[in-house]
Write a structure and sequence with these properties.
By secondary structure, this protein is mainly alpha-helical. Helix content is about 65%, strand content about 0%. The chain has seven helices and two strands; from the N terminus they run H-E-E-H-H-H-H-H-H. Strands 1-2 form a two-stranded antiparallel sheet.
Length: about 170
């Protein structure tokens, strides 16, 4: 069994049940495929899904895409996935949708980052490795936390610098 599953639309092997009740692997793969890999740009290997298309709706598009992305995370939580796996999944969605809020660049991010496919692959890896986490998991989470801290502290430090130079405050 491969460790990573390529996205393709396959019918479920068992009778279809509502997604909210039954979280079969095939259904989660279908969710990841519909959101990230469903369409292909003719003549290229570039694939995209409804996640990228929904992002074109001003204001609400990225929020709807993020809500849809949490289906896989919720399924992973219900299955008892490791906390580090869940943190990585939430980070993937947060990265894609934070960049996704930027016009044009965000739409490209939805096509490149593919957080739903990444999250599905993380879930499959978590189920196969029995909670054996690599240093890469911790490095990714630490890197995201540091980046967020820098993004929040950067403007604050800039404001303090401006106040010190203009008003001799602090």
């Amino acid at each position: 069994m491969p460790s990573y599953v390529e996205g393709e639309v396959l019918p479920p092997t068992s009778p279809a049940a509502p997604l909210a009740v039954n979280y079969d692997d095939e259904q989660l793969n279908l969710v990841a495929t519909v959101l990230d890999d469903m369409f292909q740009v003719p003549g290229t290997t570039i694939r995209f899904g409804f996640d990228a298309l929904i992002g074109w709706i001003p204001g609400i598009g990225d929020a709807l895409a993020a809500i849809a992305s949490f289906l896989i995370i919720f399924a992973a939580w219900r299955r008892g996935a490791a906390r580090i796996t869940l943190v990585r999944m939430v980070s993937n969605v947060a990265i894609e949708n934070s960049i996704g809020a930027i016009p044009i660049l965000g739409d490209i991010a939805h096509v490149i980052w593919k957080s739903n496919r990444r999250n599905y692959n993380l879930l499959m890896r978590d189920r196969q490795t029995l909670r054996s986490h690599t240093w890469k998991d911790w490095l990714f989470v630490t890197g995201v936390a540091l980046l967020v801290a820098i993004l929040f502290l950067g403007p604050l430090l800039l404001l303090i610098g401006v106040l010190r130079s203009h008003f001799r405050v602090f």
